[in-house]
Structures are given as C-alpha cells and as structure tokens.
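Researcher: I'm preparing a figure for a lab meeting and need a structural model of a single chain. I don't have an experimental structure, so a prediction will have to do for now. The sequence is pasted below. Please return the structure as tokens so I can convert it later.
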Amino acid sequence: MYVDPNYPTKKALKEAITAGKAVYVFSPGPFPAPTVGECSVEGPHYPKAHTWYARVIITGGKVTKVKG
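Model: Understood. Here is the structure written out token by token.
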C-alpha cells in the first residue's frame, strides 16, 4: 500500500498528519485499500526505491495516525 500524496520520507508523512492534511491510502494492485483499521504503507512510490515503511491507522478513509 502507498499513501497519497507521495511523501519522500516518513517524517514528512508524520508532519502532514500532525498538520491535519488529508492523506489517503491506495493499492496499485488488485487488492483494495482499507478504509478503516490498520495497514502497512511504504514510500516513496515506484519508480523510486522504497526508503521508508510505516504502520498507519485509517479512519473514514483517511490516515489519522502513523504508528511507526
């Protein structure tokens, strides 16, 4: 799973969530992204190499917390 917008670092993702920005999870493959609960995400998106991984909590379709 990935996040939208595409953040270059996990720190940038955490800062966006703290600032209250809308961040969504999506799946580029055949499996649907969850709209509630937890999932693992990685970034940045392909074709760049993945340099960070995080576990996020999703509420109402938006990422509400980055666990680690």
